[in-house]
Design brief:
Elements (H helix, E strand, L loop, with lengths): L3 E7 L5 E2 L15 E7 L4 H5 L25 H6 L9 E5 L6 H14 L4 E5 L4 H11 L7 E4 L4 H11 L3 E5 L16 H18 L2 E6 L12 H5 L2 E6 L6 E9 L7 E7 L2 E4 L3 H5 L10 E8 L2 E13 L7 E4 L3 H15 L6 E7 L11 H13 L7 E3 L2 E2 L5 E2 L4 H10 L4 E5 H6 L1 H5 L4 E5 L2 H7 L1
Parallel strand pairs: 4-8, 4-9, 5-6, 5-7, 7-8, 15-16, 17-20, 20-21
Antiparallel strand pairs: 1-2, 1-3, 9-10, 10-11, 11-12, 13-14, 14-16, 18-19
Helix pairs in contact: 9-10
Length: about 450
Amino acid sequence: MVKLKTVFVCQNCGAQSAKWVGKCASCGGWNTYVEESFSDSPLASREAVVNREEPVLLSQIDTSPQERLKIGINELDRVLGGGIVPGSVILIGGDPGIGKSTLSLQISSLLSQSGHKVLYISGEESVAQTKLRAQRLETKPGENLYLVNQIDLNLIIEYIHKLSPEVVIIDSIQVVYQPEISSSPGSVSQVRECAGILTHLAKSSNIALFIIGHVTKEGALAGPRVLEHIVDTVLYFEGERYSVYRILRATKNRFGSTNEIGVFEMSSFGLMEVNNPSEIFLSERAKQSSGSVVVSILEGTRPLLVEIQALVSKSSFGLARRRSQGIDYNRLSLLVAVLEKKIGFNLADKDIFVNVAGGVKVVDPAADLGTVVAVASALQDKVLPSDLVVLGEVGLGSEVRSISQISLRINEAQKLGFKRCIIPKNNLKSKQAILKEAKIEIVPVETVKQAWEAI
């Protein structure tokens, strides 16, 4: 008989303990340890996908480029680096109801229309329910799309060997279970083992594998961190639940850039591509409102124009509050300190709230000067010109530092009808020939004070 062993495993980080403890020493989570049983015997499914390849010399490996599978959704193809690499494993995560299953069904339908054989494994919906969802989205799948409702890993492997598909979609990994493991589906042991076996199968059979993953209340992917380590690409869906716009961001990509994003609009027919997200983010901007500034941020190779809003009011309590949505809180505190120390604005007794309209998360330092100008505008209640774009990184000495890809940012602002752009003076020196051709007024500045006076 196989001897079973018992161990307590943290469901957040995967740490193990011989006995139950209230607080995890690794991640700090409370009441996250669950008792799980395992055996030392090898799993049958793991033996079924073992790879018997012999070691080869690096110089003898064929380096001819692999042809990627084009999905037909330009936003998604760009985020993936130009399409799906055969044999790659892609993990898609996001909040409930944000569109993970909708995107998966659209991917499988478009690939099957192109003649690729796709196996869609739905563990959370029956085949009839998936068919109803496809009819609601009005997708037109091809003849090579196979659906199955199954959560047993051994049977899933049998289906893959029987059909030999080019693309497999698992929706979702938290409901798939390995019968040889006694713990319940969704536990750390089940997720780690099932994901590892499926990944090995995809690599050995040259199958593109999509895995849908749930997220925790903190926004991280549920299950062990090894789930993100073993896959090739990790895609996160971002966006407010009550907003129609979704942002697909690659946080890990072995076959492309991790700076690219895709912008989608949720409609009754599924996720629709947004070809000009800058225009969408600025469509509801108030023209005669103080504390509103437009900045140009760079996401990979794509420039985006977003609106930064600021609100400054007198604090009702002894301690002033600083709140930010879409901008790092520590970065906001630094910029407010620069305004106080170097410019002379009195913000010690003021509540400051900063928001990036459209639910976009800004990490580009080029938005620093725009944030500073927005706070100053809200403090003095001065309405800024509606055709103004502000660019620049702010240092602790209130100097405005140069930013990258200045010509791309200015061209994007010019396309949307902006007439004036404030940029760092050092960028004017390095890109003088390109900037002279721009049909927009360029105002170079060296300090934050110069920028505010120019406005």
